[in-house]
């Protein structure tokens, strides 16, 4: 069943071009307009939405954080992302004009299910982005947009994450189409870019050997930090989570802008730090700020492992290792930039002789609170 791969995780990471492509498939008409009739929510309700709250746990919550940047930009609707277990014990401000988006691979996560119930009781419309058909969360939601990642067996989530981000982009573009916050041409352009993503993921996967080599050199590492900014911030968090889960290594993700507000104190000679660099073709200032962050930590002895866009030569003087990923529009970049981090975590765990499919202490679906 592993299809010749060393583990389910390895297979699922390599399945990611399909997970993204299949999630996009069949969701546009011949004029290139998005068709999401499958969600069966009255368009009038969606036009009136004045706030979106994403509720999810773990990796699914990071997918929500990525979606926030895109949806706010495309739709001009405020988006909050909240861990499901925190949401339900607050007194969240939710009403009929709130769209709650519950993101879950399994569709069975108890904390997320409870958040769904909590939101519906207060009159919100709940849309589930879920991978597993027939699971509980979509049954208890008003609507469902399925991710088509296929079954995910490894406990740590990889391909479901990419499919969740893809589905959330589709939702954002659909809302933009419905509410007229983007021109049809602009939406079509993003869809074209999205369709180009699977081939870009494949390019990253084709470079897996180099990631393996570096991970093997780092098998004795006891702590790794991850920095990112804008959509690279949730990518950094996800990179850290994968490393904790798979390799049992202390790992932390930070927003790069927070560095000087505390985390830079952690930098000592030899400390490995992954930095997810935003595209230089995006907002200029963002790119140069992250480059200065790399300089700052390098000056204090950090070993810098940089994820950058192909052609970005500004990073090379300060990077001990550079992983180039294909050029991608800023908002869509997480779909490619997270892949080297997933590979790194898997390879480091493998170098340590660990079972990457069944990490200790974890369950695939957390059906208790
Ligand atoms: O099935 P779900 O997407 O609701 O699961 C949510 C989290 O439990 C899950 O993403 C968890 O963080 C994974 N172990 C991440 O690899």
How would you characterize this protein structure?
With 369 residues, this protein is α/β, with parallel strands linked by helices. Helix content is 44%, strand content 15%. The strands form two sheets. The chain has a five-stranded parallel beta sheet, sandwiched between helices. It has a five-stranded parallel beta sheet with strand order 7-6-8-9-10, sandwiched between helices. α2 (16-24) packs parallel to α8, α2 packs antiparallel against α10 and α12 packs parallel to α15. 5-amino-5-deoxy-1-O-phosphono-D-mannitol binds at residues 57-60, 104-106, 109, 112, 155-157, 245, 362, 365-366.
In short:
Keywords: Aminotransferase, Cytoplasm, Glutamine amidotransferase, Repeat, Transferase. With 369 residues, the protein is an alpha/beta fold.
Percent range for β-strand residues: 15-25%
Tell me about the biggest sheet? 5 strands, parallel
* Count of alpha and pi helical runs: 15
Report the bound ligands by name, code or SMILES: 5-amino-5-deoxy-1-O-phosphono-D-mannitol
Computed Rg: 20 Å
Number of E-type strands: 10
Helix content: 40-55%
- Overall outline: globular
Q: Name the strands of the widest sheet in spatial order.
A: 2-1-3-4-5
Order of helices and strands: HHHEHEHEHEHEHHHHEHEEHEEHH
Structural class: alpha/beta
Mean pLDDT score, rounded? Answer: 95
Low-confidence stretches: none
End-to-end Cα distance, whole Å, is 32 Å
Compile the SSE list and pairings.
Blueprint: H1 8-14, H2 16-24, H3 43-48, E1 51-56, H4 58-75, E2 79-83, H5 84-87, E3 98-104, H6 110-121, E4 125-130, H7 136-139, E5 143-146, H8 159-179, H9 184-195, H10 197-206, H11 208-217, E6 223-228, H12 232-247, E7 250-255, E8 272-276, H13 284-299, E9 303-309, E10 321-325, H14 334-337, H15 339-351
Helix pairs in contact: 2-8, 2-10, 4-8, 4-12, 8-9, 11-15, 12-15
The protein binds 5-amino-5-deoxy-1-O-phosphono-D-mannitol.
The site of 5-amino-5-deoxy-1-O-phosphono-D-mannitol has 16 residues, from helix 4.
Main location: cytoplasm
Function: Catalyzes the first step in hexosamine metabolism, converting fructose-6P into glucosamine-6P using glutamine as a nitrogen source.
Domain SIS: 41-181, 214-359
